[in-house]
Fold these 3 entries.
Entry 1:
Amino acid sequence: ASDWSSDVCSSDLYVFESCSFSGNCPPRTTMLSRPWRIYAKVVLIRCDLSEQVSETGFHDWNKPESHETCYYAEYACTGKGYVPERRPDYVHQLTEREADEYTREKVFGR
């Protein structure tokens, strides 16, 4: 498995910063991400997550092998959908220093 956690400029990376995730579906019925094939890298920084987001937040689509190839992380999110203590072990809670690595320059390689 590659070290996705340190690959800030990966082409498979989605970073959401200061976004609001909301909707009109029933509470706790929406996931933030799932593996495409067995790869994904999604980082949420200071996002507001509504009650529509499942307490687990992310789903592995019953592909336990994706725990080694996917990378899901959050930092300083808020809202009823942000329940870090209920996230699966494969979801990372970033430190401020780790979150600071996700700058536009690094993400877009410029």
Note: The first strand starts at residue 13 and ends at 17.
Entry 2:
Amino acid sequence: AEMIEQGKEIAKWHKRIAVKLPTTFEGFKARTELRKNGILINNTLVFSQQQIFAIYLHEQIMQRQFGPIVEQAPWQCFISPFVGRSRQPIMFMQVDFPEPDGPSIVTYSPL
């Protein structure tokens, strides 16, 4: 609950602020609530492709239920992986949501 309240407060600073959240169970709870309010998110503490995929799936679900965040910024949410600490090679994944009801476009390339 504290992470959610802090995120809401930080988001008030400017419409283009992305609230930084850890990619943990508690971070996903906060991510859900903040995204319901149209708040941009920067997921951190990302160590694996599975975490990247979980963030991607969560973002798709949130956009289908609540729509994209086009009012605040021309981009959606961010993922900040710890590439140097990963034990597996991480591929850069760019996800574009050109239309709220259309298919997303996922682009993979090695870092």
Note: The chain is about 35% helix and 25% strand.
Entry 3:
Amino acid sequence: RLVGSEMCIRDSFRPPGAGPRTYALKVEGESNDPRIRNGEVVIVDPDRPPDPGKYVVAKRHSDSKVTLKQLSIAEGEYFLKPGNRDWPEPIIKVDGDWSICGVVIGKYDPM
């Protein structure tokens, strides 16, 4: 129960276990349907290790394109894969032009 002076307003929120640099992004596109849908807000921790199988935010330096994909590894090389099996660009090789910006640790579900 919140009464009078006991009420407080926070201008930031960090989910349990999230690092201090954690941020939120609104998803645009359908490349990860149905796991992550267009318009959803994902919580991203840039301090988490980008392990294969995790969804990550990655940036291509040559054109500043940012994408959210699932990280995979095959024969020692890293790839970004869409969660949507019908997506026309099935695999992106993570080469020197790409950087992993953070690991998706959850989704925000507004009420």
Note: The beta strands are 23-26, 41-45, 55-60, 65-74, 77-81, 92-93, 98-108.
